Write the structure tokens for this entry.
Amino acid sequence: MKRIPTLLCFAALAATLLAGCGSQPVQAPVIERAPVSAVKPAMPTPAVKSSELYTVRRGDTMFSIALDHGLDYKELAAWNNIDNPRRIRPGQQLRITPPAGAPEATVIVSPITTSGRVESRPLAAQPGAATAAPAPPNAEAVTGPAAAQGSIKSEPLARKLPYTPENLALLQRAETPPAAAAPAPAPVPAPAVAAAVPSAPIAAPKPELPQAATAADDEDKVDWGWPVQGKVIAGFSEASNKGLDIAAKLGDPVIASAPGRVVYSGSGLRGYGKLVIIKHNKTYLSAYAHNSVILVKEGQSVVKGQKIAEVGNTDSDKPMLHFEIRKLGKPVDPAKYLPPT
């Protein structure tokens, strides 16, 4: 009997526990995940050789880098996807060669002329060819000697004549047969034209034409001329002077030394003042510095001798023209390219 209350207590306790568990339902854990989006694989970029890259240094500008490598700064900016050429930073790497498929701006190049002239001459008659002989002159009809005055009758006389010396002579002439007329000479037949014997055709000699210049020759064919009239006051030096300094009067004309395309016109290079740069071909460009007035625009084509600026003293202590010739971006001595003064 004592066990009944104890069992009742255990039963009441179990019911209480079951009631508590029922009031707090157990929820399964829920994990929220973001929707998975398709990730596009990155396109592989073509590898660029170290020789095709240039690392920007402090003090460099897009204009100076282009000049030092013989390039158009606009093309250089386009190759590197740079919208503002004035915004580059030290340590930045720029490709200095055009990427595959990049269009290249055309450059006006002076045509290569030759002094040799080709003269057209008539071809000589070929050996073995049939040559028509000149037509023989018309043979004149050769006639016998003209009949003597009064025809001589050869028939016998029909009547008797009295004997007289005159009648005797007449009778003797009548009985003498007349001299046979000399036969007319047969016409000389025209010489027969020999039939042309077929032979192998002989090609007519062709006049020699001047050989066309190759692309390699075009790269070095630049007809240089002096850009200004004046005295050279400073020559070329790899260490201190990258061109020639030519003294001139303020406002004197500065002319293009060779035909080409203007790739720079402005004052963005320190120490050059108002500067004009002309690209002549893939190898050469020329620079004209310290101008007072610039008369050409970027992208404009110019011919040799065309006035492009006027002498000035911008970034210089005296009126002068600083003139440079660059081969693949490297300064060379202009005196070795310009004609003697």
Observations:
- Residues 41-45, 110-155, 193-197 have pLDDT under 50 and may be disordered.
